[in-house]
């Protein structure tokens, strides 16, 4: 059984991880603004070098406006996931980032470059919505309902194909969130 102190430490560590990832996004964008070459490390569909973008793309953005648009939902949704502990937020992030990145690499148009944390944001939102359904606990259901009410419209719009938006990253991020919720569901019975 987990002790309360251990749970608090794990939550604190999870929150620190989310904060550190956001800080890395800002540092990367600042370096990119000066050097101008980091975005080339994004996901370039169906190229060998483009696979390197799968782990790097969430930390790269197409300018500070793009970064600002992703930072607030990343921090809020990531913090909610992190309240379940370091292990949980780490596993959800890895599953979501991998599914989002690989789905983008496989299905986005050739000759495009994909950067940004929005795939992870969509994954966090989908995870939080689906977790209540899989875990069947009232507080997760309530959290999922609130996330759906607050983020629902932008989630649906972000999944629609539009020029200049990596909707593939959004779609596969959301699918990664669903998969993470299913894989990490506590078995009750």
Characterization of the model:
It is a single chain. The chain has one domain (4-24, 62-106, 117-183). The protein is built from seven helices and no strands. The protein is mainly alpha-helical and 189 residues long. 70% of the residues lie in helices and 0% in strands. The protein starts with a helix and ends in a 6-residue tail after the last helix. It has helices at 4-35, 53-56, 64-82, 86-107, 118-135, 138-158, 167-183.
Secondary structure elements and pairings:
Elements: H1 4-35, H2 53-56, H3 64-82, H4 86-107, H5 118-135, H6 138-158, H7 167-183
Helix pairs in contact: 1-3, 1-4, 3-5, 4-5, 4-7, 5-6, 5-7
Count of distinct strands: 0
State the domain count.
Answer: 1
Calculate Rg over CA atoms.
Answer: 16 Å
The helical percent reads over 70%
Strand content: under 5%
Mean pLDDT reading:
91
Structural class: mainly alpha
| Distinct helical segment count | 7
The succession of helices and strands, N to C, reads: HHHHHHH
CA-CA gap between termini: 19 Å
The main sheet comes to: none
Low-confidence stretches: none
| Mass-distribution shape | globular
Q: Gist?
A:
The chain has 189 residues and is an all-alpha fold. It is built from seven helices and no strands. The model has no long low-confidence stretch (mean pLDDT 91).
Features of the shown structure:
mainly alpha
């Amino acid at each position: 059984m987990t002790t309360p102190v251990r749970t608090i430490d794990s939550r604190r560590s999870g929150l620190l991880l989310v904060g550190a990832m956001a800080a890395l996004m800002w540092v990367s964008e600042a370096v990119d603004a000066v050097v101008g070459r980091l975005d080339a490390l994004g996901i370039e569909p169906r190229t060998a070098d483009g696979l390197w973008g799968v782990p790097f793309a969430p930390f790269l953005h197409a300018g500070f406006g793009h970064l600002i648009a992703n930072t607030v939902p990343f921090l809020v949704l990531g913090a909610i996931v992190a309240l379940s502990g370091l292990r949980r937020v780490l596993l959800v992030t890895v599953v979501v980032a991998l599914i989002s990145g690989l789905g983008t690499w496989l299905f986005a148009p050739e000759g495009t470059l994909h950067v940004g944390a929005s795939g992870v944001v969509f994954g966090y939102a989908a995870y939080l919505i689906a977790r209540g359904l899989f875990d069947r606990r009232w507080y997760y259901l309530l959290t999922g309902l609130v996330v759906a009410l607050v983020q629902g419209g932008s989630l649906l719009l972000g999944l629609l194909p539009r020029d200049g938006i990596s909707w593939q990253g959004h779609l596969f991020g959301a699918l990664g969130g669903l998969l993470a919720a299913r894989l990490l569901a506590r078995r009750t019975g």
